[in-house]
UniProtKB/TrEMBL annotation, chains A, B:
This protein's record includes keyword Oxidoreductase: yes
PANTHER family registered for this protein in UniProt: D-LACTATE DEHYDROGENASE, D-LACTATE DEHYDROGENASE, MITOCHONDRIAL-RELATED
GO molecular function per UniProt: D-lactate dehydrogenase (cytochrome) activity; D-lactate dehydrogenase (NAD+) activity; FAD binding
Protein name per the record: D-lactate dehydrogenase (cytochrome)
Signal sequence coordinates: none
Cofactor(s) this protein cannot do without: FAD
Sequence similarity: Belongs to the FAD-binding oxidoreductase/transferase type 4 family.
Keyword annotations from UniProtKB, A to Z: FAD, Flavoprotein, Oxidoreductase, Transit peptide
EC number(s) stated in the UniProt entry for this protein: 1.1.2.4
Pfam family, one: FAD-oxidase_C
Top-level taxon in the UniProt lineage: Archaea
GO biological process: lactate catabolic process
Amino acid sequence: MDHYEELKNICEGRITAAPAELCCYAADGSQIKGKPDYVVFPKTTDEVSQVLAYANKHLIPVTTRGAGTGLAGGAVPVRGGILLDMSQMNQILSIDINDIQVTVEPGLVADKLNETLKPYGFFFPPDPGSAATCTIGGQISSNASGMRCVKYGTTKNYVLDLEVVLADGTVIHTGTNCLKSSIGYDLSRLYVGSEGTLGVITKAVLKISPLPKFRKLIMISFPSPENAGLSVSRVFAAGVVPSACEILDKTSVSILTKLDPDVIFPRDGDVVLFEVDGSSKNAVDESAELLASACEEISSSILITDDPVKMKEIWDARRLLGAAVSKLDPTKTRIYVGEDLGVPIQKLPQMIAKVYEITNEIGITPMIYGHVGDGTVHVGLFIDVLDKDEWKKLDIAADRLHLAAIELGGTISSEHGIGAARGMYMEKQCGSAFGVMKAIKKTLDPNGILNPGKLGLS
Amino acid sequence: MDHYEELKNICEGRITAAPAELCCYAADGSQIKGKPDYVVFPKTTDEVSQVLAYANKHLIPVTTRGAGTGLAGGAVPVRGGILLDMSQMNQILSIDINDIQVTVEPGLVADKLNETLKPYGFFFPPDPGSAATCTIGGQISSNASGMRCVKYGTTKNYVLDLEVVLADGTVIHTGTNCLKSSIGYDLSRLYVGSEGTLGVITKAVLKISPLPKFRKLIMISFPSPENAGLSVSRVFAAGVVPSACEILDKTSVSILTKLDPDVIFPRDGDVVLFEVDGSSKNAVDESAELLASACEEISSSILITDDPVKMKEIWDARRLLGAAVSKLDPTKTRIYVGEDLGVPIQKLPQMIAKVYEITNEIGITPMIYGHVGDGTVHVGLFIDVLDKDEWKKLDIAADRLHLAAIELGGTISSEHGIGAARGMYMEKQCGSAFGVMKAIKKTLDPNGILNPGKLGLS
């Protein structure tokens, strides 16, 4: 059987097995590598269904890829086989403002959806850092979130229905177009975050939200990262639900000031950027005041602004952070390992202290930032990639960071997912629940063709 | 083997098989009946685990019951066996305001949780009509919602972690205490709404929300139920997310006026009660104005009030509605069948028209109310329960209503669940996805002991 020819027929010629092209599909934003044998470019649900039925029959691994912006190797075909590049299924199929929903194909780029929704006064809230390039299918498969999710919730809160192709090619709908429905097992939520291991998403009905009309930014500096962590609890206890809540430790701030010496950031400590939003200017003003007073006692300085130019400058700087780390030391590169810890909010000061303790012992400089309103602690570890010893240190640091998060009652991944990068911690993280995940995987993908080597499942 | 004695040993004497007592467990708020053989009252997770391991070995059905307020027979032991009465596991185990969460046992009464949280300025938003008596475990098992969910979301949005006992007695944790976590399959969401068919919940970690400080009620009457339905889309399109959005058709209003001739309800049409809430008085005022103007063109009258006495009176009247229906005709009783339809918002006018058409043809008077902001259409059908012909009519009406909802792209249950009452529509509603549900059930409960006869699964 010539798999290439068969797959080529199914996808009407949209296939490649050229070595140079396959290399483009061998990586994502993580350190995980793995080359596919074929890349196919389906255009319809029926084509996806035929590809899966064929792969299932011939036991060929199938990995689904959106834009490849993942940070855990979720879309990397570590066992070879077929890579489904979903980028040609990228249409907005309908915008139903009166039903507060849209129907889209999985290859649609996230920002494109929000640009299209803006004139209607609506938006799709989950906003991962990669929104400019990542796809909606990838967002769903990894339950992506981002800065706004502290107020608006993660991707799973917005998925009403998914069209999914199962391992054997069967097409199902996981939900309905209703905003609320209570009809047995919530299969939509099971597929959100399942990283392509249970089926291939070919269509999604998503709830949308009215765009807030007013926003205000409150930038607060604290004398210690512990105080910065504490501020989050205080703000919530004051009854304010901020629309963003980002921590940047002293190292992160110093990177930004190296990038732009005039950047509007306080130089006197660890910084938390809060944002409040709403449909009323007065409400936003009041929330900002309430938030500032909740933090006053434990902070060094407070800046409140609704100047759009200043706000843009501050948020642009924050968004640059992940990439800008090289400014700290041009000989070093940031590597995404141990980068996505999460803890209950009260444990933030402890987690932050632990990151400094571990990296200090090992001799790596960390940068800490993240969505602290959700308990997310992004750790940036950077090394000289030509130095083998530094790679070893990095692995040890990442391992200890993951274990420290679990020990604090936290999570090895707050929002980036497990992929092939964190599978080895699943048993420790999930305990006997991991057995339930394995059983579900075995039931829905008995031949193990769907994204093998991920989630620690195989 | 004497099951009674074995179970008695496990639960340290907390068991009954007295016929009169068993009868008390043979029903819920629906028409479904079924008597257990034993009722046990576990006090610990370990006892639940031992009961399940025993039942699994001896193939005895196990049905879990909170307060028995369900409306679809979910907690009714239709195949006999063991009934787990969870009411003695009813403690609030911890209140962690700084982590924005609580840990509770499943037998805790919902309102009790909110009374306890009130002094802290927080609340657990999902608010089914039965909140005064229903339990948190029941809320989770049925993904309960209610009036506020249009803004705050349903129970599933608030479950961070569940301790669950599986069919064989294994205890798992489905999540973490983190506000955000991305670690493989979302088992918490799989268990929410699974109606006791996949395991028994013994503990829950729930996210809570800051209590809004201000509320305002906007009562709007419309010349037709279609216009009332339309108002919802208009309000959302205006950028307002109301904290409640309840429709009461002309019949519902007439029932309330019969109950209390002075009740503050307009007599000139179908009514929608909107509420807006927030942490700022100005914001709430502005939202109320915006909402009112969005509806002005299509409405007959608008009343805006933040007078707490008036608001209480109006909401109390709304809450009485389900029970007060007998006032329309004292010889008739409301029966909960076909009562929980849902459709995409734009289809509300069509669904409402369809309810009138079907009930008119069959000769039953309907009352329509519900959370229209979510597309929920509660239909009250009432009959003379001594008249066999009326029962037949009722069954025909319910059947046609369910099918009509499916045809409109809607759902047979918006929030009450499937239980034993709606299982026969699952295949039609879910299509091939129902096969996935069956496969998951078979995997996690191979002997079929967990709440058999529910969700159409067995």
